Amino acid sequence: QVQLVESGGGLVQAGGSLRLSCAASGIIYSIRYMGWYRQAPGKQRELVAIITRGNYTNYTDSVKGRFTISRDNAKNTVYLQMNSLKPEDTAVYYCNVKSDGPTTSYDYWGQGTQVTVSS
User: Fold this and answer.
1) Cα angle vertex 17, ends 113, 22, to 5°?
2) Contact between 95 and 2 (Cβ < 8 Å)
3) How does DSSP assign 53-89, residue by residue?
4) How far apart (Å, rounded) are the C-alpha atoms in residues 1 and 15?
5) Is the dihedral of CA 13, 117, 63, 19 positive or negative?
6) Cα 9 from Cα 36, distance rounded (Å)
7) How far is Cα 39 from Cα 78, in angstroms, rounded to an integer?
8) How much is the average pLDDT of 21-34?
9) Is residue 117 pLDDT above 90, yes or no?
10) How many CB atoms are closer than 10 A to CB 30?
11) How many Å apart are CA 47 and CA 95, to the nearest integer?
12) Which of 34, 47, 81, 82 could be bridged to 68 by S-S, CB 3.0 to 4.6 A?
């Protein structure tokens, strides 16, 4: 059974930092990439950052220079270091893992962790 266990969310003042973690277990096929999405109230879920097995990274423009995604392949864990947080970063953050089976790919999601940034 696949599980994505997220941790690290919380309440922080603007300008502060948080580090999110997501540990994946039970995935039997090669992981193509791991990433973070977020969904603010009344808005669609959006990509925040992704990282491939070879450590190629991509960020949405609004977090470039403030957030850093990293991963530990041995532990199937992805991290999101969030610095200089702004109130507009407030959202539920979801971990995402995409893996490739022999004939299809699989998309896995975490349960979400709330990040609230106060002004």
Assistant:
1) 35
2) no
3) TT--EEE-GGGTTTEEEEEEGGGTEEEEEE-S--GGG
4) 38
5) positive
6) 13
7) 18
8) 90
9) yes
10) 9
11) 10
12) 81
